[in-house]
């Protein structure tokens, strides 16, 4: 799964991955690659095991980012 957006939102996503329980869980179960750009960047998520990505985890992470991090 890929998230490509302006740098401020990518930084908010990284902050949420580092500081929320859900984010830490995603970091524990996924490989995460950051491709930096001048105006926008991209995060790529892939599972460390053979399970499928759970979309509700990323929906809830987005909710927390909007509520608490994207100011």
TrEMBL record:
Protein name, entry field: Uncharacterized protein
Domain of life, per lineage: Bacteria
């Amino acid at each position: 799964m890929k998230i490509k957006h302006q740098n401020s939102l990518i930084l908010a996503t990284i902050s949420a991955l580092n500081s929320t329980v859900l984010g830490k869980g995603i970091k524990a179960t996924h490989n995460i690659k950051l491709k930096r750009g001048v105006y926008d960047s991209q995060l790529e998520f892939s599972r460390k095991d053979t399970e499928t990505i759970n979309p509700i985890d990323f929906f809830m992470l987005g909710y927390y980012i909007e509520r608490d991090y994207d100011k």
